[in-house]
Amino acid sequence: MGIEKTIVIQEVFFRRRRLWVGLLKALLVGWLGYILYRQVVVEAAMSGLWRDLAGLWPESLPWLLATAVLMPVNWMLEAQKWRCLMAPFAPLNKRQALRGIMAGVSFSQLTPNRIGEYGGRLAILPAGQYGAGVAASMVGSLAQWLALFSGGLAGLLYMARSDTPWRYAALATAGILVVLSVAYFAGGRLQWSMPALLRRQLSNLTPYPQKILWRVLALAFARYAVYVVQYALLIRATNLAIPPDMVLSGIAAIYLFQTGIPVPPLAAVLTRGELALWLWESYNVDTLSILTASFALFIINLGVPALLGAAVIVKTKVLK
To answer: What number of other Cβ atoms are within 10 A of residue 281's Cβ?
Structure first.
C-alpha cells in the first residue's frame, strides 16, 4: 500500500512538474525583483544616492553614457571566456553563452560575493553538462582573480612608493598571486581541491590546453581593464578632484580588497565606497559623491543585466 501511494504521488508530481517549475521560476524572479527594488529604490533613496545621481545631469552625461556603452563589452568578454572553457566539453554559441552569463548575474544578486552565479549558468545547460559547466565557471573565476590580483598588485606597488605599509600589502598580494598562478595553470588537475562528489562528476575532464588558458586569461585582463575604466569614468563624472594616477591605482586596490569581503551586491557598493574614502581621504573627497559613483556602477553593470537575466530564467526550459 505504501509503495502504491508513493507511486501515485510521483505520478501526480510528474504530471504537474511544469506547474512546479513555473512556480519556482516565479518565486526566484519575484525574490530578485524585491531585492532589486529594496536596493535600487528604497535604500538608495534613503541614502540620497538617486538625488546625487540626478544632480550629475546633464553635465556628466558623456561620462555616464561611456560607462553604459562599456557594460555590454564587459559581459560579452565574460561570455567569451565561458565559451572558450566550455568548448572542449559542451560547445556553446555566443547567444547561449550570453544567456547563461545574464542568468548567472540574476542569481548572483541573491547571494553574498555572487556565488549564485554558478546556478544561473547551469540553468541553461542540459543536465549532462553540469559538471563541465561548474569546471568552466571555476577556472574562469580563477582567471579573473589572477587579473584582479595582478592589477591590485600594480596599484599597491604604485602607492607603496611613498607609503611603507602598502609594501607589506603588496608583498602579501604577490604571494597570493603566485599561488593562484600555480593553481590556474594546473588546469584540470584543480580537481584535487574540489569536494569528493564534484571530483567524481569531473573525473572525465582533462586539463585545459595551455592555449585555452592563456586565451581565457587575456580575456580576463581585458574585462578587468573595462571595469577599471568604467569606475574611473564615474569618478570623473562626479567631479572629484583626484589625480588620474591615484584614481587608477586606488581603483585597483579597491577591487582587490573588496574581493575578500563576503557581502551582498548593494552592500558591496557601500564597502567599495568606504574603501574609496579611506584610500583617497587626503584629497578631501565627498562621501556622497564616492557612494554615487559606486552606486551608478552597480546599476549599470549589475542592475540592468540582472533584469535581462530574469527574462532569460523565465524563458529557459528547465525540464531538459
So the answer is: 9
Tally of structural domains, the chain:
1
Query: Does residue 46 surpass a pLDDT of 60?
Result: no
Q: For residue 7, tell me if it sits in a domain.
A: no
Give the range among 49-63, 135-149, 173-187 with minimum mean pLDDT: 49-63
Long-range CB contacts for residues 96-103, cutoff 8 Å, separation at least 24: 96/124, 99/124, 99/312, 99/316, 100/124, 100/125, 100/133, 101/75, 102/75, 102/305, 102/308, 102/309, 102/312, 103/309, 103/312, 103/313, 103/316
* 27 domain-assigned: yes
Q: Is residue 2 part of a domain?
A: no
pTM for this predicted structure: 0.82
Q: Which amino acid is at 308?
A: L
Alpha carbons 236 and 7: distance in angstroms, whole number: 64
Burial readout 168-185 (b: 16 or more C-beta within 10 A, e: otherwise): ebbeebeebbeebeebbb
Which is nearest to 100 in space by CA: 124, 129, 77?
124
Which of 133, 55, 149, 59 has its CA nearest to residue 91? 133
Question: What is the crossing angle of helices 17-36 and 2-15, to 10°?
Answer: 60
Read off φ and ψ for residue 81, nearest 5 degrees: -55, -50
Q: Torsion over CA of 278, 280, 285 and 291, rounded to 10 degrees? A: -60
Across residues 68-78, what is the average pLDDT?
A: 95
Domain that holds residue 35: 19-315
Amino acid in the structure at residue 294: S
Cis peptide before 58 (omega within 30 of 0): yes
> Can you tell me the mean pLDDT for 267-287?
77
